[in-house]
Design goal:
The chain is an alpha/beta fold and about 325 residues long. Helices cover about 35% and strands about 10% of the residues. The radius of gyration is 20 Å and the shape is globular. Bound molecules: pyridoxal-5'-phosphate. The site of pyridoxal-5'-phosphate (PLP) has 14 residues, from helix 3.
């Protein structure tokens, strides 16, 4: 059941990918027909990803996943706004891809304000407004939380940032293809996604940016991705990501209805257990996400082992972190 950690590759994504491992294996930078076929697949995929996010083709950069997109967004915003200041606002419940990157920035002299969520896991626009200073260059607050399941108020938070002239990035890794995303309506400047969270392959993602990236390339080399991120593109992975996001978006309302019913059933039954509490927002939460705290369990590994014996895969921390043994920082919030 732990589809927050990752998801199974969809049949549609697999079928779309297979030719690009075999007969259509060309390098998109090559000028002969094999290469140009791969190049076309790459640009068709870019269009599909852009359409799924309400974006333009040239606003999509392919990456190796959510972690890289988050790193890139932060480093690029810092370089672009170096003259303006060195203060960043984020939330205390971000994924390590954001937290660790901001820690690096702190070592380089940046000040970081990490806003604490309320008991539903929400960051309020008022809180954000108060935290923004004259030297704030970036706000990075996730769209949906991987541990508590809360869907945050991205549009409002972005509006507050823009009112104060500050760039807004959101980690939408848990949100993409699970809830509607329209980058134009949200107003966000940058947004990160990762294919393996929506039934695409692992090791591929995208960064949406409607602002120019920092002029110096993020990865230097052969000049792929408009010179910003060099390295031969992961064509099968990118094609798989495009097929998966298209499938996810096309089936969004049907999947949402189905998952919400399952989720609410699980929540209703689990909350009958004495000492069980729901974490995150009771209503503004991901359709397929339920998260609980159980009193008196001791170490969560015991509960995970018992559930595993019963054939149920549950997460006890952020599974995307290599050492998921400790209680995740997200659950040290006010709801516990
Ligand atoms: C919210 C969030 N951001 C970023 C990531 C990292 O993405 P990736 O595994 O593609 O590097 C994850 C999970 O892995 C996540 O849940």
């Amino acid at each position: 059941m732990d589809n927050s950690a990752t998801t199974a590759l969809s049949e549609t994504a697999l079928e779309a990918m297979l030719p690009y491992f075999r007969e259509r294996f060309g390098n998109p930078s090559a000028l002969y027909s094999y290469g140009q076929e791969a190049k076309k697949a790459l640009e068709d995929s870019r269009r599909t990803v852009a359409e799924a996010l309400g974006a333009l083709n040239n606003e999509i950069y392919f990456t190796s996943g959510g972690t890289e997109s988050d790193n890139w967004a932060i480093h690029s915003a810092c370089t672009l706004s170096a003259k303006k200041g060195a203060h960043i606002v984020t939330s205390a419940i971000e994924h390590s891809a954001i937290i660790r990157t901001l820690e690096q920035r702190e070592k380089r002299g940046y000040a970081v304000t990490a806003l604490k969520p309320d008991r539903n896991g929400q960051i309020t626009p008022e809180q954000l407004e108060e935290a923004i200073r004259g030297d704030t260059i970036l706000v990075s607050v996730m769209m949906a939380n991987n541990v508590a399941g809360t869907v945050l108020r991205t549009r409002e938070l972005c509006a507050v940032s823009h009112k104060r002239g500050v760039l807004f990035h959101t980690d939408a890794v848990q949100a993409a293809a699970h809830i509607p995303i329209d980058t134009r309506a949200l107003g966000v400047d940058m947004l990160s996604i990762s294919a393996h969270k929506f039934h695409g392959p692992k090791g591929v993602g995208a960064l949406f940016t409607r602002i120019p990236l920092a002029p110096a390339p993020y990865i230097t080399g052969g000049g792929q991705e408009k010179g910003q991120r060099s390295g031969t593109e992961n064509v099968p992975g990118i094609v798989g990501m495009a097929a998966a996001i298209r499938e996810g978006v096309e089936n969004l309302s049907r999947n949402t209805a189905y998952l919400t019913a399952l989720r609410d059933n699980l929540i209703d039954h689990t909350l009958k257990i004495p000492g069980a509490y729901l974490t995150g927002d009771p209503s503004d939460r991901l359709p397929g996400h339920a998260s609980f705290v159980f009193e008196g369990i001791g170490h969560s590994a015991h509960l995970i082992a018992m559930l595993n014996d019963a054939g149920i895969c549950a997460g006890s921390g952020s599974a995307c972190s290599a050492s998921a043994k400790e209680a995740p920082h997200v659950l040290n919030g006010p709801w516990v």
